[in-house]
Design goal:
Oligomer: single chain
CATH architecture of one domain: Sandwich
Number of strands: 42
């Protein structure tokens, strides 16, 4: 028997030339080598195969037929080649410095003389456990829920509590459509509480994906991957010689939660984009939240921008509404008109460029929002310009999501028009920052130029990604933000392209700490954009403007700023209504943000009390480097006296980094921090020297 070792993976090639994954991280399956079919590391099947109508992915017909041909190393990659009568599969495993994470993908080639229709092509299958009856209560799964306004919230349950009480059970999470993190993030953690080990995965898909845990043959299987016939209305016809590339999946191992998050975080830094304009993590002001909403104008920018510049923000972004007729006062009506993307002279009488130049005169750069994938159902001009082949179609009709139709970037007319639009926004209007918002969701996909709805979705978004990459290459100094109605597109296909991502459109500053505390498990801190809006509409809409300042406390300003300090500051709201002292607190917060940015670029998550759960009255989360921990703590209405253990670190010194001018009562020893909050609702940001 031949073995192949690659980082934390060990493969065996049996006498029958079956390839079995016998070890991964701390899981050793070598005792099951007499049943190599149970140790196959991915699944592949075609129309008419054994999994066509089966809710289990295991034992797929074509995977059973594959036999080892060769393996080789190319740089830091391992490539294993297997063949059957119909397919040749090139499986690529990639390693990286400073992390044990391993990235996996496959290229599946039709080597037969006939057309073959794929129905299943998952990326990774991992076998774990030794006794179903015992393991169902010893293994826990961390699912990352992602409902709107509650993004990135982990839910930890035993396999038993997930519904795997009996053998031949299945728990799965599946996403269909172009909102990659709609309801759940494409990642998870498998925790073995008997042995104290953690396995984390992320599925790097911009669109559809699935993960599934099966209980079968007294053990468990974890399946990770992209499209399938059963879950995504997908099949892929391959003519002889044609290939299909699977969705990429990455796994990492660890001894603790913080350890496995550290490995995945370090891996994510290898694939994130490099943009010189963003390398120092500039603080951003976006006037949408609790201010302009969908009604920006030049006058408002001139009023607010001097205060934004004073705060230390480097970018001023005008969000939704710069592009429609000012006569449309109804928000819903404005969304019906999306898709033309010319400036609205009613809102910007001298043109957008004049506003951009004013912002630049204050020492900032300028940005605009766009929803490039949609045309409003009431935009008669664009609906006349585009024919049906430019849109996602189903049963002969354009697919409508709420107020818009979804564009298909495989169509040259779409590709060219939207390329010209971005060029105009950047070269004519003067944008240094573009915020992409992905609003409509087509579900399974489109029937246009495809063998299935899912195939249409996948191919259309390959074209959209190509268009995005092309735009970025033409404008390398522009920062591009990924957004989808808040945090509905949090995945590491998107975040290998975009410099940063909107984590949420949560409007309640007292609910955001739960997102802020957890999101660093899912997104690099340097990519996780978090709103800070000291002047909320709850105040502004209820009192005269000249009374707003007295209704906003200093502690409210501080808490809003701390919400964003672990990630990327997205300042918002009517900060000009605050007095000098409160605006100085905003400025101080941004100065602290800037001071830790270099450390943030190499820090890993530090969750001293685990995840934050909605309703927790005390929340703590931080970032750790070799010499420092930056720790945010929030008292959200609980006991004012709090003792926080600091597992895994030895503190030499602890100080309040922000705010420095407000009272903070605390004490510490090498392994714990004790805080006596002075108010029921309060937050502080500490620096711990190790």
């Amino acid at each position: 028997m031949k073995t192949i070792e690659f980082g934390a993976l060990t493969f065996a090639v049996t006498e029958e030339k079956r390839v079995a994954l016998i070890k991964y991280f701390d899981t050793d399956n070598s005792e099951y080598i007499n049943n190599p079919g149970a140790l196959s590391f991915f699944e592949i099947d075609a129309a008419g195969g054994t999994t066509s109508g089966n809710h289990f992915m295991s034992g797929s017909g074509e995977a059973e037929k594959l036999r080892y041909k060769e393996h080789k190393t190319e740089g830091k990659d391992l490539i294993i080649v297997q063949e059957s009568e119909r397919f040749r599969v090139f499986s690529t495993f990639a390693r990286f410095e400073d992390t044990n994470a391993i990235r996996v993908s496959h290229r599946i080639e039709n080597i037969s003389a006939r057309n073959v229709c794929l129905e299943l092509a998952n990326t990774l299958r991992l076998h774990f456990g030794k006794s179903f009856s015992e393991d169902k209560t010893e293994f826990f799964f961390h699912k990352f829920n992602n409902a709107r306004y509650t993004e990135g919230i982990p839910d930890v349950r035993s396999l038993h509590d997930l519904g795997l009480q009996w053998e031949y059970g299945s728990f799965y999470v599946s996403n269909s459509g172009n909102a990659s993190s709609y309801l759940a993030l494409p990642q998870g953690i498998l925790e073995n509480r008997r042995d104290g080990n953690f396995l984390m995965f992320q599925i790097e898909s911009y669109t559809s994906w699935i993960y599934q845990i099966e209980s079968k043959d007294n053990r468990f299987n974890l399946h990770l991957g992209g499209f399938s016939a059963r879950h995504h209305g997908w099949n892929k016809l391959l003519v002889p010689g044609e290939s299909y590339e699977t969705v990429t999946t990455t796994i990492a191992g660890g001894k603790t939660l913080n350890d496995v998050l550290s490995h995945m975080t370090n891996y994510r830094r290898h694939i994130k984009p490099r943009n010189k304009s963003d390398e120092n993590l500039p603080a951003i002001y976006n006037e949408y939240m609790h201010y302009s909403w969908d009604d920006p104008n030049a006058e408002r920018v001139r009023l607010t921008a001097p205060y934004v510049a004073e705060s230390g923000c480097k970018y001023y972004v005008v969000d939704c509404g710069w592009h429609d007729s000012k006569e449309i006062t109804d928000t819903f009506g404005m969304y019906l008109k999306f898709g033309t993307w010319y400036e609205d002279i009613g809102r910007f009488p001298e043109g957008i460029r004049k506003t951009a130049e004013y912002v630049r005169s204050l020492g900032m750069k300028f940005g605009l929002w766009i929803a490039p994938e949609v045309v409003g159902v009431g935009n008669e001009k664009m609906l006349e310009y585009y024919d049906d082949s430019c849109f996602f179609m189903r049963n002969g009709e354009k697919i409508r999501h709420s107020t818009g139709y979804l564009l298909d970037f495989r169509n040259k007319k779409v590709y060219d028009y939207m390329s010209q639009t971005l060029d105009r926004m950047i070269e004519e209007y003067g944008c240094d920052y573009i915020k992409f918002d992905g609003c409509p969701n087509p579900g399974f996909g489109t029937e246009v130029n495809s063998t299935s709805l899912g195939d249409g979705l996948e191919e259309a978004y390959r074209a959209f990604i190509e268009w995005t990459e092309d735009a970025m290459s033409r404008h390398p100094d522009v920062i591009f933000e990924d957004c989808a109605g808040g945090g509905n597109r949090i995945d590491y296909k998107a975040l290998s392209l975009f410099s940063l991502v909107s984590t949420s459109d949560q409007m309640d500053y007292l609910a955001y700490p739960y997102i802020s505390a957890n999101i660093i498990a899912s997104v690099l801190p340097e990519q996780a954009a978090v709103w800070s809006y000291p002047v909320g509409s709850d105040v502004y809409d209820s009192v005269p403007e000249d009374e707003v300042n007295e209704r906003i406390s200093k502690e409210r300003v501080v808490l809003n700023m701390i919400n964003s300090l672990l990630g990327r500051v997205h300042l918002a709201s009517r900060i000009q209504l605050l007095d000098d002292e409160k605006r100085e607190l905003i400025k101080e917060g941004i100065e602290v943000y800037n001071s830790i940015s270099k450390d943030k670029l190499r820090a890993t998550p530090y969750l001293p009390k685990g995840y934050a759960e909605y309703g927790d009255t005390f929340v703590a989360s931080g970032l750790k480097t070799e010499k420092k921990v930056y720790l945010a703590v929030w008292n959200l209405g609980g006991e004012r006296h709090t003792e926080l253990p600091l597992p895994g670190v030895k503190a030499k010194d602890i100080k309040v980094l922000y705010p420095k001018g407000l009272a903070t009562n605390f004490s510490f020893d090498s392994s714990s921090l004790t805080i006596d909050f002075t108010e029921d609702i309060q937050a502080r940001f500490f620096e711990i020297t190790l």
